[in-house]
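quick one before i forget lol
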Amino acid sequence: MKNLPKFKSVNKLLEKSFRENWDRPALSNYEGDTFTYGELATKIELLHMGFEMCGLKKGDKIAICGRNQANWAVSFLAATTYGAVPVPILHEFKAGNIHYLVNHSEAKALFVDDVVWEHLTEEEMPGLLVIIGLGDLKYIYSQTPEMTRIRDGIFRAFLLKHPNRLRPEDLNYYEDSPEELALINYTSGTSGFSKGVMLPYRSLYANMYAARHVAQPQLDNTSNIVAMLPSAHMYGLMFELLYEMTIGAHTHFLTRIPSPKIILQAFQEIHPSVIISVPLIIEKVYKMKLKPVLDRTKTFRLIPILGQAIKLKIRSELIKAFGGEFNEVILGGAPFNPEVEKFFRHIRFPYTVGYGMTECSPLLTYEKSSKIPKGSCGKSIPGCDLRVDSPDPRKIPGEIQVRGWNVFLGYYKNEEETAKCFTEDGWFRTGDIGVIDSKGYLYLRGRSKCMILGSSGQNIYPEELEAVVNNVSYVVDSLVIEDGGKLTALVYPDYQQAATDGMEKEALEARLNAELPEINKILPAFAQISRLEFMPEDFERTPKRSIKRYLYQRNQ
């Protein structure tokens, strides 16, 4: 197996980091409170004492459901360092789904946002011993009067145990082992129902090892990170929180909806050391801020000297807009739009595109921005082997399969689905399609479940068509589906921006329909889009902001 690392306990890495960075800032709510590592450790100790007094055991499940905030991180870290199994649940799920996932996971405790709790009821979750509010970390429900007394006496018990406050040398966190279950992460994926992904500690450590030894730049305890991805999703959890806590970095949570305006404002104030994002955010900045400027300066860019000056100016302004102190933007979660990628490479903007999925905690491939070839998502990380199931993996796309330290244990209480996703010789079937070159660089071609079979047997990957549609002005996002033997593009237009520009809904739709012949000029003959269909609101999405394709299919 490729560069197999030597395992280290994740919880002991956290313990060491907390001790060494006791007085340094650890967690902040953007435009709100900041907690040092010492204060974080104190919050965790209070929760540990409560867990123990309530009878929670090592290996018990602890569910967490709420928006991004410092106390979300506190509850997750308290669960794992106690030896319990955290179960992050996306707070945007419907109440019925949250009830179901809490029960399915057999959680004994639930940390929950006030806004989420308004729609839940303890009667629907009879297995819970306690429910704790994320806002103040106080019990809002306990199964027995004894647990209520525990809640009321927790601070007195803490003072008796630590009369001189908690000290760095008091920490003694649970020591985990490689194959041990670290967490259960529920993801809706593209199959139409949530599956509990069981991730072992070796999987978490493999990602941390890659971040520490492969990724650039190398972060340290002076680094700042803006957390704008959902903490309940592995991409945000691993690379905006968990890894940072093991090295003493400072994570700033955007507690509000991460609109481009809020994100850019936070970048200006926090000056992140590295930016973890999904392509959609960068593409929106490009489309709304840069494309109009590029269109206006098209003539000038044809003049070499002026063109070079414009490129340098755009690059400089873009770097400044992103905080000015970052060394790299790391993108993941979805393919990068080819036009936007071409432009960013042209101006030598420091970005890279990784590839991952929940079942691998999440990283499979990465490469530094200075080395990664155009269109690639990098090479496999240490401890991870990749193969492409194809007669010619370099030229003929096939399913990407993986084995290694980063691969999950299976789906919780779902042996049938677990068996389906592994080959007979033990490789995990990702469901993604790609090719791999002679140097080991992976190139994604789409998801096998999304592939459309053309009338003459051609393989049509809708993501490639959508990339063309998404380049049209006023298109926020699109989804190409098979519709009665033809291809229809479902389009979500930017009605708000059009109205700002003085364009009515009907005029905007007419303008976009007029673009269809130009779109089809770019597409191969066997993949022509027959019509556009306009969506009144944005598509329903997974935690990593991918469209839930299964909801929009018409030909199954």
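fyi The CA atoms of residues 104 and 329 lie 37 Å apart.
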